[in-house]
Design a protein that fits this description.
Layout (H helix, E strand, L loop, with lengths): L8 H27 L4 H13 L3 E2 H8 L3 H13 L3 E5 L7 E5 L1 H21 L6 H18 L29
Antiparallel strand pairs: 1-3, 2-3
Length: 176
Amino acid sequence: MTQPRWLNPEEQRLWLAFLRMRRAIDAAIDGQLAEAGLSPADYDVLAPLSQSGEALRVRDLAAQIGWDRSRIAHQLRRMEQRGLVVRSGSTTDRRGTLVHLTDLGRTAITTAAPGHVETVRRVLFDQLDQHDLARLTTIAERVADAAGLTGISRTGGPAPRAAAHDGAKDSNPEPL
């Protein structure tokens, strides 16, 4: 039997600091979104729908945010009950289901997005200089790839649209 590769003191310090950082970022974002009446899962779904400017296939939405079919189905059911999204059958593929952002969903994401991006800036980006930013991006992408998160795009999920929906895609999307 192979012996475990225990962490040395430097690795242990990094691991514990990473866990603390992740929990702190999650807590800050969870709190901000709760003030806006959304959960992080709601935001994960609403952001790509808002950015797309059109309905998305459920499977494409799930792949974009890195969720399995069961999780996206349960989340969409809860969001549909709250009036944030609606689902409909695809007109081009009988097996496909489309997810549409409702007016209430659009209002929710456009209301939450400014506070969300400010929270992300305050707790993460304001703590980094340009060198840190480039290095941390490279490290985060490498770790995500090693962990097997291949379904989530490296460019991230689309940003919510801050302007009123007119059916056209924004040419200058918001950063988050």
